[in-house]
Protein backbone atom coordinates (compact mmCIF):
# COMPACT_ATOMS: atom_id res chain seq x y z
CA UNK A 1 0.00 0.00 0.00
CA UNK A 2 1.75 3.17 -1.18
CA UNK A 3 0.21 6.60 -1.41
CA UNK A 4 0.55 8.06 -4.84
CA UNK A 5 -0.75 11.63 -4.45
CA UNK A 6 -2.13 13.72 -1.74
CA UNK A 7 -4.19 16.91 -1.90
CA UNK A 8 -6.55 19.06 0.11
CA UNK A 9 -9.91 20.53 -0.78
CA UNK A 10 -11.77 23.01 1.39
CA UNK A 11 -15.33 22.69 2.71
CA UNK A 12 -15.94 25.85 4.75
CA UNK A 13 -13.85 25.58 7.89
CA UNK A 14 -13.37 21.78 7.66
CA UNK A 15 -10.27 20.33 6.00
CA UNK A 16 -10.76 17.42 3.55
CA UNK A 17 -7.71 15.38 2.64
CA UNK A 18 -7.76 13.09 -0.41
CA UNK A 19 -5.26 10.30 -0.57
CA UNK A 20 -4.74 7.80 -3.38
CA UNK A 21 -3.57 4.35 -2.45
CA UNK A 22 -2.35 1.52 -4.71
CA UNK A 23 -3.63 -1.80 -3.50
CA UNK A 24 -3.73 -5.16 -5.36
CA UNK A 25 -3.01 -3.61 -8.71
CA UNK A 26 -5.75 -0.95 -8.42
CA UNK A 27 -5.84 2.69 -7.28
CA UNK A 28 -8.30 3.66 -4.63
CA UNK A 29 -9.15 7.05 -3.23
CA UNK A 30 -9.53 7.52 0.55
CA UNK A 31 -10.99 10.62 2.18
CA UNK A 32 -10.41 11.98 5.64
CA UNK A 33 -12.54 14.90 6.89
CA UNK A 34 -11.28 16.81 9.91
CA UNK A 35 -13.90 18.62 12.04
CA UNK A 36 -13.99 22.43 11.80
CA UNK A 37 -11.63 24.28 14.15
CA UNK A 38 -13.39 26.78 16.44
CA UNK A 39 -12.68 30.45 15.80
CA UNK A 40 -12.23 31.15 19.53
CA UNK A 41 -11.31 28.73 22.21
CA UNK A 42 -13.47 28.46 25.32
CA UNK A 43 -10.95 30.37 27.45
CA UNK A 44 -10.98 33.35 25.07
CA UNK A 45 -14.78 33.34 25.08
CA UNK A 46 -14.94 33.33 28.89
CA UNK A 47 -12.33 36.10 29.14
CA UNK A 48 -14.29 38.26 26.70
CA UNK A 49 -17.47 37.56 28.66
CA UNK A 50 -15.85 38.57 31.96
CA UNK A 51 -14.47 41.78 30.48
CA UNK A 52 -17.91 42.69 29.11
CA UNK A 53 -19.50 42.02 32.51
CA UNK A 54 -16.85 44.11 34.26
CA UNK A 55 -17.42 46.98 31.83
CA UNK A 56 -21.18 46.83 32.43
CA UNK A 57 -20.65 46.93 36.20
CA UNK A 58 -18.12 49.77 36.15
CA UNK A 59 -19.85 51.98 33.57
CA UNK A 60 -22.30 53.57 36.07
CA UNK A 61 -19.46 54.28 38.49
CA UNK A 62 -17.33 55.86 35.80
CA UNK A 63 -20.22 57.94 34.49
CA UNK A 64 -21.20 59.09 37.99
CA UNK A 65 -17.81 60.64 38.68
CA UNK A 66 -18.77 64.01 37.23
CA UNK A 67 -22.16 65.70 37.35
CA UNK A 68 -23.84 66.05 33.96
CA UNK A 69 -25.35 69.42 34.74
CA UNK A 70 -23.52 72.53 33.62
CA UNK A 71 -23.50 73.89 37.17
CA UNK A 72 -19.94 74.25 38.47
CA UNK A 73 -19.08 72.66 41.78
CA UNK A 74 -18.31 75.07 44.63
CA UNK A 75 -14.76 75.22 45.88
CA UNK A 76 -14.01 72.94 48.81
CA UNK A 77 -14.29 72.89 51.74
CA UNK A 78 -17.91 74.09 51.93
CA UNK A 79 -18.55 75.85 55.26
CA UNK A 80 -22.09 75.85 56.70
CA UNK A 81 -22.19 78.28 59.64
CA UNK A 82 -24.87 77.97 62.35
CA UNK A 83 -25.33 74.28 61.54
CA UNK A 84 -26.46 71.78 64.16
CA UNK A 85 -24.47 68.54 64.02
CA UNK A 86 -27.35 66.04 64.24
CA UNK A 87 -31.00 65.44 63.32
CA UNK A 88 -33.44 67.23 65.63
CA UNK A 89 -30.64 69.45 66.91
CA UNK A 90 -31.32 72.77 68.59
CA UNK A 91 -28.96 75.16 70.32
CA UNK A 92 -29.28 75.82 74.04
CA UNK A 93 -28.38 73.74 77.12
CA UNK A 94 -26.51 70.51 76.30
CA UNK A 95 -25.18 67.82 78.64
CA UNK A 96 -21.68 66.72 77.68
CA UNK A 97 -21.54 62.96 76.93
CA UNK A 98 -17.73 62.55 76.95
CA UNK A 99 -14.63 64.49 77.92
CA UNK A 100 -13.16 66.70 75.19
CA UNK A 101 -11.13 69.85 74.60
CA UNK A 102 -12.82 73.08 73.55
CA UNK A 103 -10.97 75.08 70.87
CA UNK A 104 -11.06 78.71 69.74
CA UNK A 105 -12.08 77.76 66.17
CA UNK A 106 -12.54 74.85 63.77
CA UNK A 107 -9.68 76.09 61.60
CA UNK A 108 -6.18 74.57 61.60
CA UNK A 109 -4.62 77.50 63.46
CA UNK A 110 -7.04 77.03 66.42
CA UNK A 111 -5.92 77.20 70.04
CA UNK A 112 -7.19 75.01 72.91
CA UNK A 113 -9.28 77.03 75.39
CA UNK A 114 -10.40 74.58 78.08
CA UNK A 115 -11.37 70.98 78.80
CA UNK A 116 -15.03 70.00 79.16
CA UNK A 117 -15.98 66.99 81.33
CA UNK A 118 -18.66 64.32 80.86
CA UNK A 119 -21.92 65.31 82.62
CA UNK A 120 -21.14 69.04 82.58
CA UNK A 121 -23.93 71.35 81.28
CA UNK A 122 -22.89 73.78 78.53
CA UNK A 123 -24.67 76.41 76.42
CA UNK A 124 -24.49 75.56 72.71
CA UNK A 125 -24.56 78.91 70.91
CA UNK A 126 -23.75 78.00 67.31
CA UNK A 127 -22.21 75.28 65.18
CA UNK A 128 -20.40 74.75 61.92
CA UNK A 129 -20.52 71.91 59.38
CA UNK A 130 -17.53 71.46 57.07
CA UNK A 131 -17.75 69.42 53.86
CA UNK A 132 -14.37 68.43 52.46
CA UNK A 133 -15.86 66.09 49.82
CA UNK A 134 -19.60 66.03 48.96
CA UNK A 135 -21.58 62.80 48.61
CA UNK A 136 -22.41 61.95 45.00
CA UNK A 137 -25.92 60.66 44.44
CA UNK A 138 -26.88 59.33 41.00
CA UNK A 139 -30.44 59.97 39.78
CA UNK A 140 -32.22 56.86 38.44
CA UNK A 141 -35.69 58.32 37.82
CA UNK A 142 -36.72 61.81 36.68
CA UNK A 143 -37.33 64.35 39.47
CA UNK A 144 -39.43 67.04 37.80
CA UNK A 145 -39.40 69.46 40.78
CA UNK A 146 -35.61 69.62 40.63
CA UNK A 147 -35.32 69.33 36.81
CA UNK A 148 -33.23 66.16 37.14
CA UNK A 149 -33.04 63.26 34.69
CA UNK A 150 -31.71 59.70 34.97
CA UNK A 151 -27.90 59.80 34.92
CA UNK A 152 -27.66 63.23 36.58
CA UNK A 153 -25.57 63.44 39.75
CA UNK A 154 -26.58 65.38 42.85
CA UNK A 155 -23.87 66.64 45.18
CA UNK A 156 -24.96 66.46 48.84
CA UNK A 157 -23.12 68.74 51.24
CA UNK A 158 -25.02 68.34 54.53
CA UNK A 159 -27.70 65.92 55.63
CA UNK A 160 -30.32 67.81 57.64
CA UNK A 161 -32.41 64.78 58.72
CA UNK A 162 -35.85 63.43 57.80
CA UNK A 163 -34.74 63.09 54.16
CA UNK A 164 -33.66 66.72 53.78
CA UNK A 165 -30.18 67.77 52.67
CA UNK A 166 -28.20 70.69 51.30
CA UNK A 167 -27.61 69.96 47.61
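Sequence proposed for the structure above (167 residues):
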Amino acid sequence: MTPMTSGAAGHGNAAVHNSYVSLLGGTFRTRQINPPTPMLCYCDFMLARRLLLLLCLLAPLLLAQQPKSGIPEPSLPVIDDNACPFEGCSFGKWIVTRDFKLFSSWKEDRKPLTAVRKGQVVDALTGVHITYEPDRIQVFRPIADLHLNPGDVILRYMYRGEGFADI
